[in-house]
Specification:
Layout lengths: L2 H6 L7 H10 L3 H16 E3 L8 H6 L4 E3 L1 H15 L5 E5 L3 E3 L14 E3 L10 E2 L2 E6 L2 E4 L4 E3 L6 E7 L7 E4 L6 E6 L9 E5 L4 H4 L2 H9 L1 H6 L3
Parallel strand pairs: 1-2, 5-13
Antiparallel strand pairs: 3-7, 4-6, 4-10, 7-8, 8-9, 10-11, 11-12, 12-13
């Protein structure tokens, strides 16, 4: 039995993940196959930050456990829609750092995110991506990785993040004014992600960051404008 056959047969459409995906996608053939795809992925595959040489075709032709990146997942879903169902599709990509909206989780139930609050030791606040892939079809943006459907390419974005100049890539920021938060790169791993980030409120920075990074924060124009440090 191949993954493709199980997905097309709708074997996992009524699983909890499939039912939730169907609710988000609405009705019709597209929504039903999105639900089946997400249900199968949730039950069988695991999310990985890098594709590791696995192609979308080999993913669909095989079965059983696989580690799947969002780009490979997008391509596999596109093949199902285009080649098996005759639904016109287009690729949709985001290629800059952004934080997902609260509540968005990857298809792999073990993966909650790679962003956490300072000092908590848990990383389930959001996902922080630099590159993310999903499929555009019938006026919708279908994201099998985050099991969601959007009305625009910006659908999953809570905030775009920007670098803190002078921090050697270890600090980024999101938001403005009193809503500004700092993201600090962590030297640890979370299953499925290539980087892990911790949210620092401005008041936490003095005790949390090294002197060089603290100076970079003090020189940042957004932090200066808000008199946050």
């Amino acid at each position: 039995m191949s993954a493709r056959k199980d997905i097309l047969d709708g074997k996992f459409r009524n699983s909890p993940a499939g039912s939730e995906a169907l609710r988000k996608a609405g009705g019709g053939t597209l929504a039903e196959h999105f639900a089946s795809f997400v249900g199968y992925a949730n039950a069988t595959w695991h999310y990985a930050a890098q594709p590791g040489g696995l192609t979308a075709t080999s993913l669909l032709d095989g079965d059983g456990q696989q580690n799947v990146a969002c780009g490979t997942l997008r391509e596999a879903f596109k093949i199902i829609l285009r080649d098996d169902l005759g639904i016109g599709v287009a690729n949709a990509d985001i290629n800059e750092y952004f934080l997902t909206k609260p509540g968005l989780q990857c298809f792999d139930p073990r993966v909650k995110g790679n962003v956490g609050n300072f000092g908590r030791g848990t990383f389930d606040v959001a996902c922080h991506f630099s590159t993310h892939y999903f499929v555009q079809a019938e006026g919708k943006y279908l994201d099998p990785c985050l099991m969601s459907v959007y009305s625009s390419v910006n659908g999953p974005i809570a905030h775009r993040t920007r670098p803190i100049q002078g921090s050697a890539g270890s600090l980024r920021k999101a938001g403005t004014g009193l809503a500004l938060v700092i993201l600090r790169l962590q030297q640890r791993q979370v299953p499925g992600f290539g980087s892990v980030w911790e949210i620092l409120l401005p008041a936490e920075c003095k005790k949390a960051v090294a002197a060089k990074d603290l100076q970079a924060l003090k020189n940042d124009p957004d932090i200066k404008a808000g008199k946050l440090l």
